[in-house]
Input
Amino acid sequence: MIKVPYNKLELQIALLDVEKKFEDNKDALEKLVKNLDETYGDNSKKTSLIADHYGISVIDLINSPNYKTLVEEYDEILAKKIISSLCSDVGLDDIEAWGVITLLTGNLNL
Output
């Protein structure tokens, strides 16, 4: 699970102003959905992306004693890329971007 640097109340407050920013930049929302689909969508696709990231085969990844750690590290890396994209492309603050990520991934119940 991705470690969120804010608590639930902080994220809920941050989300109050996000809708207007997305209305002003709908392309960024589409990009976010695509990135989230890559991260949390089809497990076989995700496994392949993780293996590619670490330069190993899918079989080696699945059989690795560090499988869980590698998946968690990849999720953190991808979340940070999405956060960075939201901040630069949409103009969200860090906490607003984390709020969007946690809301859309169903992790707002921290």
Remarks:
- The chain has a mean pLDDT of 84.
